[in-house]
Design goal:
By secondary structure, the protein is mainly β. Helix content is 0%, strand content 58%.
Length: 119
């Protein structure tokens, strides 16, 4: 089994910063892509940022220039540095990890961490 544990969420004022962490544990020999997604009340879950095992990144247009995703492969941990936060960034943030299982790739999700940005 694989567990993903997010941390670092909280309440911050508009313009502030937060850093989210996602630690993977369990039966893992390697992790392909890791990513952060978010879901605001009444909205669908959306991609925020992804990072491959080689360090290539992809961002949603709404967070480009404000958020930075990184990972530490040795620690099996991904991070999301969020700067210049806006009230529209308020959501539950979920970590995702794609773990190879033979010829398949299994996606795992964390339990989510709440980020609230006040105006």
């Amino acid at each position: 089994q694989v567990q993903l544990v997010e941390s670092g969420g909280g309440l911050v004022q508009s313009g502030g910063s937060l850093r989210l962490s996602c630690a993977a544990s369990g039966s893992i020999s390697s992790i392909n892509a890791m990513g952060w997604y978010r879901q605001a009340p009444g909205k669908q879950r959306e991609l925020v940022a992804t990072i491959t095992s080689g360090g290539s990144t992809n961002y949603a247009d709404s967070v480009k220039g404000r958020f930075t995703i990184t990972r530490d492969n040795a620690k099996k941990t991904a991070y999301l540095q969020m700067n210049s936060l806006k009230p529209d960034d308020t959501a539950v943030y979920y970590c995702n990890a794609a773990v190879p299982r033979g010829s398949l790739k299994i996606n795992y999700w964390g339990q989510g961490t709440q980020v609230t940005v006040s105006s």
